[in-house]
Specification:
GO terms for molecular function: serine-type endopeptidase activity. By secondary structure, the protein is mainly beta. The chain folds into 2 domains: 156 residues, Beta Barrel (Thrombin, subunit H); 90 residues, Trypsin-like serine proteases (Thrombin, subunit H). 8% of the residues lie in helices and 30% in strands.
Length: 261
């Protein structure tokens, strides 16, 4: 059921890079020292490795679609309109770093027609541009296959809290038929993309990672976003891959919406 959305504000499984189901230190490890291995099956992201990553103050992730627009999940926001209550943190892997760039929101645009099933995307307009590289989005399904990268500051275990450091991992594509065996009619194959290690589990997003990007390299070697962390059952459980908004399905809608901001 979609009460398993991966937003940090929800208590069920929903959006943090867990990268290890059994470790007590995944998703960016808590306050451990930088030299401590953060998680089984995942590694600490290096400063500047994913400069497009954004942390949102409501407990979600996001990516820089434009230098003044963050792409995130619809379930991370409450409708569309003027909104100055969200703070975007960017430019660092350590959320406590004094170098963190913090910018307030001015507007939010939630996907038209969003009702908790599919269409899980939203845009947040920032009060000023952030001078960092943006993350291009997939406009066709060409890159909806292979191995994807995930990253986030979400929980290290189911029900856990936000992590201090950005953690990264890789997850393989899971076809619709396999994913539907786990989620049945809750999955919207035309709008959602699944990824994870189905048989063994152990690597996944989790609470607090919602809205963050799932991405890979395109044919030119540039990062391209193919998914948005959306929902799933538990975190890194065998037989239950993570479910992501299929970005290519909504690329035209996202571009049109961004133009209105």
């Amino acid at each position: 059921m979609k009460n398993l959305l991966r937003a940090f504000k929800r208590c069920a499984a929903a959006g943090a890079v867990i990268l290890a189901a059994v470790s007590l230190q995944p998703a960016g490890a808590s306050a451990a020292s930088a030299s401590t291995p953060p998680v089984v099956g995942g590694t600490r992201a290096a400063q500047g490795e994913f400069p497009f990553m954004v942390r949102l103050s409501m407990g979600c992730g996001g990516s820089l679609y434009a230098q003044d627009i963050v792409l995130t999940a619809a379930h991370c926001v409450s409708g569309s309109g003027n909104n100055t209550g969200i703070t975007a943190t960017a430019g660092v892997v350590d959320l406590r770093s004094s170098s963190a760039i913090k910018v307030k929101s001015t507007k939010v645009l939630q996907a038209p027609g969003y009702n908790g099933k599919g269409k899980d995307w939203a845009l947040i307009k920032l009060a000023r541009p952030i001078s960092l590289p943006t993350l291009g989005i997939a406009t066709t399904n060409t890159y909806n296959k292979g191995t994807f990268d995930i990253a986030g500051w979400g929980a290290a275990t189911e029900g856990g809290g936000q992590q201090r450091y950005l953690l990264k991992a890789k997850v393989p594509f899971v076809d619709d038929a396999t994913c539907q065996r786990a989620y049945g009619n809750e999955l919207v194959p035309a709008e959602e993309l699944c990824a994870g290690f189905v048989e063994e589990g152990g690597t996944d997003t989790c609470q607090g990672d919602s809205g963050g990007p799932m991405f890979r390299k395109d044919d030119a070697g540039a990062w391209i976003q193919v998914g948005i962390v959306s929902w799933g059952t538990g975190c890194a459980r065998p037989d239950y891959p993570g479910v992501y908004t299929e970005v290519s399905t909504f690329a035209a809608d996202i571009k049109k919406a961004a133009a209105t901001l």
